[in-house]
Structure formats: structure tokens, C-alpha cells
Design goal:
Layout: H1 3-18, H2 26-38, E1 44-50, E2 73-78, H3 85-97, E3 101-104, H4 110-127, E4 135-141, H5 148-159, E5 185-190, E6 194-199, H6 213-220, H7 230-243, H8 259-267, H9 284-299, H10 308-325, H11 336-349, H12 364-369
Parallel strand pairs: 1-2, 1-4, 2-3, 4-6
Antiparallel strand pairs: 5-6
Helix pairs in contact: 1-6, 1-7, 4-5, 7-10, 7-11, 9-10
Length: 370
């Protein structure tokens, strides 16, 4: 991370630290205790991490001090469709080198879930010494908003085979907001062997492993935005975008955000079932306008991005330009910068601005030597 970008990271880290673990309320503390009590009772622990931040999203209760591999744990790097594919491959290689079983997937991909189910079956058979008619219990754990409930629902849909089960087995609540799962619930996901998955609430440690984790978890949505200043998180995001090369892919956006494209989109909306609205920032023509604004601002910037003050000046200019790209009126009574920040963060978190991995994979060779 560049020095100027680190300055934004430190400020956001101070803000996270100032919360003093406010996200760790009594419900999360109770869930933490319940999960810890079940860890020694299940056959396999399925740890879900965010593929964009594999280190920062590690589940704290599973951090091992022993060098011995944990053969009863399978790590799932979810949201791999939002991460840099090359970095995901490096993380997979690192996990394999450290004797940790790992699967990278997108919870909305049927093929990815099938691969996960096969990996779970293989681990259960290994643990049960090859028994085919055994019953295995799997504890699904992870921090908030990494997609645990989406995964268990997808496993349940694909893995169940008895027609009599359809419509009778409940589904987990899926939400883009962290903290929606409140209780530990069981779901049957496979037969022969019979496999039951316990879906657990997301638990985020009140104290992070290092100062770099807080900003990354705030950016990816593991910490509720309502606890933070969205503008500060968006500033950190723009600092990262400005220091990466991804913006060069936006050079030929064809000025999709200009008024002619906007007018055409609005005039043609009557010919489609789904109407287009200027206020909907997820519309393709708005996303293209945003990408074009970011490309123009970065490519035309003549300052020094390593200088914190100059980077801050660029970000301020980008916010003004993004206000127009998002068509946010300056006459709104609510905080304009907050609204722009929320829209920008949503586009990042849904992959509309590209695929980014914020935790670089450790060098396997250095790890082995140490």
C-alpha cells in the first residue's frame, strides 16, 4: 500500500479503534460463546472468509498457535467473483502449502457450490475413516457479511435429494447487511453420508489482530456502515482506486454518462419491462459514467499520488465529479457527500468497479523458511 494511501488507512483505523468494539454486543458475545462450545463437538468446521480480504476476515476463535495443520477445518474463500483472480490463486497456493484445505467460490455459482459439497463430503469421509452411511456435522463459521447463509442455502438446494424433504427444510436468512443471522440453525445438505450444517451468526472480534484489518473490514461491509462515517470509508476506497492500475480499463467507456446517453436511456425505457431511473446508481449508464469520471480524474492528474495532501485534493475533486455522475442534487437536505459515498461503496461491494484483493497473499517461500 502506498504511503499516502496508508495515511487514509490509519485515519480509518483510528475511527474503527474509537468504536471500542461497539459491534460486539451481547447477542454477538452470546453467539461467540455458543460457537466456541460447539467447536469440539462437530466433525468439521467450515470457515467462510471474504476472498477480497482473506487475512482480515479470518475467524478469530480459529486462530491456531500450533504449527500442526487443522485437518478438521475447511476454509471457503467466498465472493471470489469480486476478488483479483491472480491473488485468489496465490492465496489458494498459500493455504495448500500450509496444509489447510481451501475452496474459492461464488456462493451464487452452482458449480462452485457443487465443488464445495464434494470437498465437504471428502473431508467427512476422511474423518469417518471411509464410512459411507455415517452422519457428519459441520459448523459453518465466519465474521459478519461473508455470505455464510447464502452458502448454506445453496448447499441445501443442491445437496438435498429426497423429494419428501422439499418445502419442509427451512432456509437461512440472506441479507447484504451484517448481523442478520441471530441463532444457530441446522440444515441437511447431503445424504450418503448424511451431512448436517449448523449455520451460525457472524462474530467479529472486539479487538482486531492488527491495525490494518479494521479499515479493510469497514470497506468490505463486515462492520455496519451506520457505526462509521461513510465518507471516510469512501475516501479510503478512492485512495486505493487511485493507486491501482484498474482504472486504465475504463478508458473506452464511450462517455456513457453524457446527457445524450442519459436522454436515450430515459426515452427507450418505455420499451423495456425494467425502467431506468437517473436516481438508480446501479443502472449501467450510471456505472459507466462513474467509471468515466474516475478514469478522467486519475489519468489527467498531474500531481504526486505519493503525497498525502495532493492525493486528498484529487479525492475531493473526484467527490464533486461523482456527485454529477450519480446525479445527486446539491439541493438535497441530507448530506450530499454521504449519499455519494454510499452509492460508491455499493458499486465497489457488488463488483461494479472491478475486482480487487486488498490482502496480498504471503510469500509461501518466506513462510517456509521462517
Amino acid at each position: 500500500m502506498a504511503a499516502a494511501t496508508e495515511a487514509f488507512s490509519r485515519r480509518l483505523s483510528d475511527a474503527v479503534r474509537g468504536l471500542s468494539g461497539a459491534w460486539y454486543g451481547r447477542h454477538m458475545a452470546a453467539a461467540d460463546r455458543a460457537i466456541r462450545s460447539r467447536l469440539p463437538l462437530v466433525d468439521l468446521v467450515l470457515e467462510v472468509r471474504d476472498a477480497r480480504v482473506p487475512a482480515a476476515s479470518a475467524f478469530a476463535p480459529l486462530r491456531r498457535r500450533s504449527p500442526e495443520p487443522d485437518r478438521r477445518r475447511l476454509v471457503v474463500l467466498n465472493k471470489a467473483d469480486l476478488a483479483d483472480p491472480s491473488q485468489t490463486e496465490k492465496w489458494m497456493a498459500y493455504m495448500k502449502q500450509t496444509s489447510c484445505s481451501c475452496v474459492a467460490l461464488n456462493s451464487h455459482s452452482r458449480e462452485g457450490i457443487k465443488e464445495l459439497l464434494n470437498a465437504v463430503r471428502a473431508k467427512i469421509r476422511e474423518i469417518k475413516l471411509g464410512e459411507s452411511d455415517c452422519t457428519g456435522t459441520v459448523l459453518l463459521v465466519g465474521i459478519p457479511n461473508v455470505g455464510k447463509s447464502a452458502i448454506v442455502n445453496a448447499m441445501h438446494r443442491i445437496g438435498r435429494i429426497g423429494a419428501a424433504e422439499k418445502g419442509k427444510l427451512k432456509h437461512a436468512i440472506v441479507s447484504s447487511h451484517p448481523g442478520e443471522t441471530k441463532d444457530i440453525s441446522g440444515y441437511k445438505v447431503a445424504s450418503h453420508p448424511n451431512i448436517y450444517v449448523l449455520d451460525t451468526p457472524g462474530v467479529l472480534s472486539p479487538v482486531f489482530f492488527n491495525d490494518e484489518s479494521g479499515p479493510l473490514l469497514a470497506l468490505t461491509g463486515a462492520i455496519k456502515d451506520s457505526m462509521m462515517q461513510e465518507f471516510e470509508i469512501a475516501q479510503f476506497l478512492l485512495a486505493i482506486l487511485n493507486s491501482r492500475e484498474t482504472y486504465k480499463k475504463w478508458e473506452n467507456m464511450n462517455q456513457a454518462g453524457d446527457m445524450s446517453s442519459f436522454s436515450h436511456a430515459m426515452s427507450s425505457s418505455s420499451h423495456h419491462n425494467k425502467r431506468q431511473y437517473a436516481s438508480d446508481h446501479t443502472q449501467d449508464f450510471v456505472v459507466k459514467a462513474v467509471c468515466q469520471v474516475l478514469f478522467d480524474s486519475i489519468s489527467s492528474f498531474k500531481g504526486y499520488l505519493e503525497n498525502e495532501n495532493e492525493l486528498k485534493s484529487l479525492i475531493e475533486c473526484q467527490f464533486i465529479a461523482l456527485q454529477e455522475a450519480f446525479r445527486v442534487s446539491a439541493d438535497l437536505s441530507e448530506d450530499v457527500r454521504k449519499l455519494v459515498a454510499m452509492k460508491l461503496l455499493n458499486l465497489y461491494r457488488t463488483g461494479r468497479l472491478g475486482r480487487y484483493t486488498l490482502d496480498c497473499a504471503p510469500d509461501v517461500r518466506k513462510e517456509i523458511v521462517s
